[in-house]
Amino acid sequence: MSHDEQAPPSNEQRGGTALVVGASGIAGSALVEKLTDEGWQVLAMSRSAGVPRANVQYVPADLSSLQSLRDALAEVAPTYVFFTAWARQDTEEANIRVNAAMLRNLLDALADKPVAHVALMTGLKHYLGPFEAYGEGDMPDTPFHEEEPRLPVNNFYYAQEDELWAAAAARGFSWSVHRAHTVIGHAVGNAMNMGLTLAAYAALCKESGRRFIFPGSETQWNSLTDMTDAGLLADHMVWAATSPNGANEAFNVVNGDVFRWRWMWQQLAAYFGVEAEGFKDEPRTLEVQMAGAEPQWEQLVDAHGLAEPRLDRVASWWHTDGDLGRNLEVVADMSKSRVAGFTGYRRTLDAFTDLFERYRAEKLIP
Q: CB count, 10 Å around CB of 146?
């Protein structure tokens, strides 16, 4: 069964109301699409309202303010909550303080609501450590398994889990945690969007006749890896929220296939019609390669009538550099989900090319 064929919720489940927090992000956008396509009533929470959509009520709110959340949620009664938001900070100490508070504020604001389940999206930094201690010290062997103990480092994912578990124990709802790898999906202006970043990079390379140079490490070029399609992540979160086997569990969630970037890079280059160049000597980061590329992007926008004139809303060079620059293998095991009944699967190359086709149709890339 493909991720598009995952069984829909029952009529009883459809009668509930889903609150999607971080609704304008990659994961949140995919959740809003899935839930509305399946007939749910959706409350879409972000800092600002999105494009009007049937069965979607936008709930603008500031997650850092408990009063803002109470005001925003005063007249609604969500039964399922999907939390996909985070706010990047300069240090992990600040990440913990800010992001744990955001989730705590939301759960406090929902204390008198009929919440049955809260699904929390985190990621594989659960096993790798935070950005400032990435891959340092003793880490579990790959593929990563959910039962691995926490690393002895501060990590905002751990702090968020603790907030979730405490609230669930106090208020009686079930929970699930979803540890995704690099998520690719549809969003603009997102801080961690490898799909659109690589598409913009390829477009700039093609326009200038430059080679499509792999920006990352030798380890990433040669090692096995995996990724997470946003649509499959949405399937997984809804499955866990509505399946008895998904309750009160933490799950890895990746597409199900593995690949090496030395193969994938050639496939992406062929799709865009550019000449691929692999790892040579040391990482050649996108932040360096694409420094000062804004005027060239503006020319592309004018020449092709593209919809987003700001390159910094299209490409997040730093995030893709960090992802592809790692000096360790990163692969997650999906056995726990399979045994529990989740059968969704996505071929990562198809996830990339389907996403690129959508971006082209929306005039975000040439």
A: 18
The catalytic position among 58, 80, 127, 157 is 157
Task: Report the SS3 class of residue 296.
Answer: helix
**125 part of the active site:** yes
Integer Cα distance of 327 and 172 in angstroms: 42
Q: Tell me the C-alpha distance between 18 and 32, whole Å.
A: 9
Give 358: exposed, middle or buried? Use CB within 10 Å, 0-12, 13-18, 19+.
middle
Q: What is the DSSP string of 74-127?
A: TT---SEEEE------SSHHHHHHHHHHHHHHHHHHTTTS---EEEEEEETHHH
Structure tokens at 340: 């529990």
Question: Would you place residue 356 in the very low, low, confident or very high pLDDT band (cuts 50, 70, 90)?
Answer: very high
Q: Is the pLDDT of residue 322 over 80?
A: yes
Confidence band of 149 (pLDDT split at 50, 70, 90) = very high
Among the options 58, 80, 125, 127, which is catalytic? 125
Q: Indicate the average pLDDT of the chain.
A: 92
Sign for the pseudo-dihedral over CA of 33, 34, 40, 46: negative
363 noted as active-site residue: no
Q: Count the Cβ atoms, other than its own, within 10 Å of residue 252.
A: 27
Identify the pLDDT of residue 136.
Answer: 67
Contact at 8 Å (CB) between 200 and 297? Answer: yes
Is the predicted pLDDT of residue 13 greater than 60, yes or no?
Answer: no
Residue type, 300: L
Give the integer Cα–Cα distance in Å for 115 and 16: 10
- Cα gap 346→331, rounded to integer Å: 15
